[in-house]
Design a protein that fits this description.
Number of strands of chain A: 12
CATH class of the largest domain in chain A: Alpha Beta
Oligomer: homodimer
Strand content of chain A: 5-15%
Strand order of the largest sheet of chain A: 2-1-3-4-5-11
Number of helices of chain A: 12
CATH topology of the largest domain in chain A: Rossmann fold
Largest sheet of chain A: 6 strands, parallel
Shape of chain A: elongated
Structural class of chain A: alpha/beta
Largest interface: A-B, 57 and 57 residues
């Protein structure tokens, strides 16, 4: 049999000496066909290399059972946990994921959204690039009522649901903790304020300062990409300040920038937490390895992923209506470790 | 206009008061149509929510421009770097990725392979689960000549190309380095030997011992999942040994198990590298954070990903023939850091 020609149910029927109708029913696992015949048909289909016509039937039913996932970067600890959660939830319901990354570039995100649209995904899961300024590139989805779920880096829109954690509340809690440990001159290493996650972390930080009658010090608020290098740069910035102008506590918008800032300060002889206390965000594996271990905010990327996909699929199956839900806020938890324990000796 | 009805080229034609043939040509960017008309057509298509018929034309041409990616787990630093590299290389050539994870379960890998086959991926990229024992689940791909590329966790097969690093050589180099630093009783924390990567790392370790006339000590060879917990368990195992039976150097098949073993030993008062030297594998972010910094093997997951996809697409485009290539071995590099510097004081 030619290997290039498409195998059809007629080939299977001929091979087994039964009717094509029986083969068709057998492949659909129709119980009108005896179990042993169904097995024979399935075995023959496999042997001959028959591809089920999900593809052609998708075209007829307009459902592809495929979800598009657009993320800023695939290679972060958080995003890989989110993807793992999404894949688990999707495959359980018979859905597949097509993925693309914007590499933090809004133009690339526009192209990716258009590709997903033309691939006819049944729904879209998206976390925005750092410099995305509007949602025009999603208009075609909204127009055709293809459901869109935002996660982590979200943007308010009437026709979508957002899956987030309470960034404001978590930042407020971390900052209050640092203040309780005796910090009076607090620094914030934050991210791009175009993104809600980072704006809300800054706002929680500021509100906690205000509620404790402490000043927000402009020159101790640094916005960066939150990379390893940004952490090293922040350490240099702190070391260049006159000793009296240095912070005595730092709240960082992620663990990477916190850990590499700590490493830079330790190399210069500063003591953590005695001279400067530290707190991060994400509970990344490095937070448990750095010495002293880093106080941080734990939230499960996997839960973000499963929640986003479950809500999208419930909507697609008509079980729930995504357009009624504005926002789903997931739990996060402050994990206190030695990097912030100025007052406590029991950690 | 109803939002549920499919928008066709006839709708665009009617909207613009031009012929459907002109719309069709314009959408294909045919230069017979003036640039301004092409722009008008593109704008109208966007406004009306027209979906290009890549889907239907895929059915005709039998190409989906989609590659399947099957991995053991999505949430590891290495795998997320591989995926990032794959996505970059694929999107550059107009291909999309559908992803699925086996969660180290061979049965799940079988189901995932069948899904990818029925989704009619143009090619498959696969890294095997820890307990996959044969390639029967890929037979349908081989039969239909859908190209398969293995990466990282590979299995010899005539019809595929494997993208690997020289695990044997890297392990030999690391072990020789530990021996040069004065280690005489070496331990190996290794992975499941069903997988070539771990078998080859063990073999490189054993050959280096042999070449330096040192014994391979059975009770100092521990096979595990290489997780954080496995590292903690290994520390306990070492601490339970009589002091004279403890290793003076440990070569670990990944950085996670190395770092968490080090943390356990340090907590018990052992000095690294003075009492026990350490070396890992992967150059994971934690290797630069643990104290002392971990000696390790660096190889780029991103390069593994781009190489795998580039080779697959070159084959699909007829530029090169994958069936002629047996194996592509990528460069890796030993990075010596303080965890193994028994002899050297300059690190």
């Amino acid at each position: 049999m030619s290997e290039d020609r498409e195998i059809t149910i007629y080939d299977i029927a001929k091979h087994l000496g039964i009717s094509a109708a029986t083969v068709s029913r057998g492949l659909k696992n129709n119980t009108m066909i005896s179990k042993s015949t169904r097995k024979k048909i399935a075995d023959a289909a496999k042997e001959l290399g028959y591809q089920s016509n999900t593809f052609a039937s998708s075209l007829r039913s307009k459902n592809t059972h495929t979800l598009g996932v657009l993320v800023p970067r695939l290679n972060s600890h958080f995003m890989s946990s989110v993807l793992a959660g999404m894949e688990k939830a999707a495959s359980k319901q018979g859905y597949n994921l097509i993925i693309a990354q914007s590499l933090e570039d809004a133009d690339r995100e526009v192209v990716n959204a258009s590709t997903m649209f033309n691939k006819r995904v049944d729904g879209l899961l998206i976390s925005l690039s750092a410099n995305t300024e509007n949602l025009n590139h999603l208009d075609s989805f909204f127009k055709r009522k293809i459901p869109v779920v935002f996660f982590d880096r979200v943007h308010p829109h009437a026709d979508t649901t957002s899956i987030i954690i309470d960034n404001y509340g978590a930042a407020y809690k971390v900052t209050s903790h640092l203040i309780q440990q005796g910090c009076k001159r607090l620094m914030h290493l934050g991210g791009n304020l175009l993104r809600d996650v980072y704006r809300q972390r800054l706002e929680g930080f500021q509100q906690a300062l205000k509620d404790h009658h402490l000043p927000f010090i402009e020159e101790l608020h640094i916005i960066s990409t939150l990379s390893e290098d940004a952490g090293t740069d922040a350490a240099r910035y702190i070391l260049d300040l006159p000793v009296s102008k240095r912070p005595d506590g730092v709240f960082c918008a992620n663990d990477t920038v916190a850990v590499h800032c700590m490493i830079g300060l330790k190399a210069a002889g500063l003591r953590i937490p005695e001279d400067i206390a530290f707190a991060g965000f994400n509970n990344d594996p490095i937070s448990k390895v750095v010495e002293p271990n880093l106080t941080t905010v734990d939230y499960s990327g996997e839960v973000v992923g499963t929640t986003a996909v479950s809500n999208l699929i419930s909507h697609l199956k008509g079980i729930s209506d995504l357009y009624m839900t504005n926002q789903i806020t997931l739990r996060s938890e402050l994990i206190v470790r030695a990097s912030s324990a100025k007052m406590r000796t029991d950690i």
